[in-house]
Fold each of these.
Amino acid sequence: MRALINIASAVACAAILAGCASVYNLPGNAPLGAALADNNVGREVSAYDDDVLLALAFSGGGTRAAAFSFGVLNELERTRAGSSQTKSLLDRVDFVSGVSGGAVTAAYFGLKKRDALTDFRERFLLRNAEEALNTQISLGNIGRALGGGVNNSQFRDWLDRNLFDGARFDSFGDERRPRVWINASDIYNRTPFVFGKTAFDALCSDIRSYRISEAVAASAAVPLAFAPIVLETYPGGCQTQLPAWIERARRDPNAQPLLKSFADANARYHDGSMKYVKLLDGGLVDNYGLSGFSIGMLAAQRPFEPMTERQAVKVRRMMFVIVDAGRGISGDFAQRVEGPSGVELVSAAADTAIDASVRSSYAAFSTLVNDWTSRVKRWRCGLSAAERSRLGAGPGWRCGDVSVFIDRVSFERLGPARAGILNAIPTRFSLPAEQIDLLIEGGADALRGSGPYQAFRRRL
């Protein structure tokens, strides 16, 4: 009875504190303005000079995911391919997408390109990114959690000071290789939010001036631990129009659910029915970071998009690498009749939902990529001789000469012993150096041991 009284007292105190503490973030985005035509931050896709498409997706998982993904980048840098052997595969990455911890690596690589390899370990992986955060379990923090979130803008500000140096989306550069997708979750519309031109045009907001750190903080904003990142909508404040595919997807009863929910959300941003967009951890709806790729393919107005015409004619080999640093099975409650306890129950329920989601999303993504590749081939084979010449198809060009490789690179690739060690590393934003280096080495070895990746290399 005494224990029940203590629990009831704690809950009552927390409820009182929650009533007193309201934790929230102010919107960090600016209006686009009627004078600005659009949100281009460089060309939508790059001008390419090779026949390779290489896309990376980095999963969530705190610093563990950031370090494992960084190991994959290191392995790509060590791999030379092509006739000249002057460029590494790192230079040939076309798209990079990230969620939560993986978003940190994706954004920094997108910003710094190969220079990210020189200092990311020291500037982020070895640093304690939790140093400015409230992480203690206390009545005060329970009250803050119930009042909106324990932390508000601390993580964003830490990222700005220590990693991104205040960089904004226009810093991704005109060449746009790689194209970067940072993924969060719109918790009102229950759909992915992909930081990019489409969503910010719908908001009538200027993505060029938006801080990269804020997008990454949104992608990593674990519920209760962080208050949602907030964006303001500016309906009627610009001349942008919603793309035609959004209205078609909304009207089509057979539209893919992912595309339709994304289209509905963007329409609400644009028509003024939502004043604010509230964003939390991208892993809530997509812990592999595949939303940007999937929506780009599903929303394509032409069969080859999100590639350009010229790239679609030139491409011969495509590789999609999904880097999965997700946590494996843990806990011992399956060995006893009682349990899981309250904390274990919350953790197990969250892990079950995320794992079920990513398994189905990976299967759906594989099917989507294969269907898209078939459409690209049919489009290529339907080109006239004049069109082929205009787009740079040279002698010996074959319309069906397009191969696609897809693989999930995970701890499992390293064998049970190493996978067990890496799985035991917690999902934190502060890890000891020895664990960081195990993860970096593991990411490189896991990619090197990938059969589809080695097949892709042989076909270059």
Note: The chain has a mean pLDDT of 86.
Amino acid sequence: MEKVPSYRVSVAPMMDWTDRHFRFFIRLITKKALLYTEMVTTGAILKSKSNHRYLQFSFEELPLSLQLGGDSPKELAECAKIGEEYGYSEINLNIGCPSERVQSGSFGACLMKEPDLVAEMVASCKAKVKIPVTVKHRIGVNGKESYEDLFNFVNSIYKAGVDGIAVHARIAILEGLSPKENRTVPPIRYNDVYRLKTDFPNLPISINGQIKSINEMKEHLQFVDGVMIGRAAYENPFLFQTVDFNFFGENEQSVTREEVLEKLQPYYEKELSLGTKPHHILRHCFGLYHGANGAGQYRKFLTSTMFDLNKSHTILKDFLKIATNPIPF
């Protein structure tokens, strides 16, 4: 049986959310889906000569893509090589973030206006590493929002040898909207991404944007190669309980929420011993019981306890007890 590529289903890179603790946590639910780091800028990597704390991850997180932010082909290539040496599965270039902070550094979604530069960035990274080099981008930006503009952008990076793309099916409006508004205000245009697959049949293409269920994933996969799940993966991580079975040919054995908490315990204890604060890990558990009876109570328990350092070693155990034997509190 042919191996299903990890990009078949992936969890989108999300600043302040997809840190190493979240990635370890979600990996307890899905072993196969491709995970992404938060965006790491080339400056952050190159300024820390020996201790690249931004790049550290657990072996269990693999397959894992390192998302880089920058606009210098040379610096991106240097960082891609460092990422490969660290053991990442893939290098991904961020050409989709619309935030003003990212734009001030002349990278992110604003680079969709400069396809030749992005092509050079891809080619430079490809020349340095053997692992795949991919790009995450929008379907356009204001002023460059037609399908023809999108086609020309993808054609440039395709000729440069890009190994795959993940496309957020909205344009990015670079002025006047916050990153949050850019995830909801511009209309969704899935058909543009489907059309790309028709025009670039040999290019692996994943679709991103407002995908929230297994059925929606299956529908999109009739037209593209992969689906990338963003906020839904964080708000409802247990959505991934059957992903390995539905999309990667694994047996229908899946974990329970309580088993996830049990498996998280050794990691939690180890991280506490290294000085990690409890809330840095526990905040990622907020959505575990999304849609389940008592979900509000569970969130309330975590909110009221996860900053209490005196209880740090018992919080997760107590949470598991409550989840296993729900009682009023």
Note: The two ends are 50 Å apart (CA to CA).
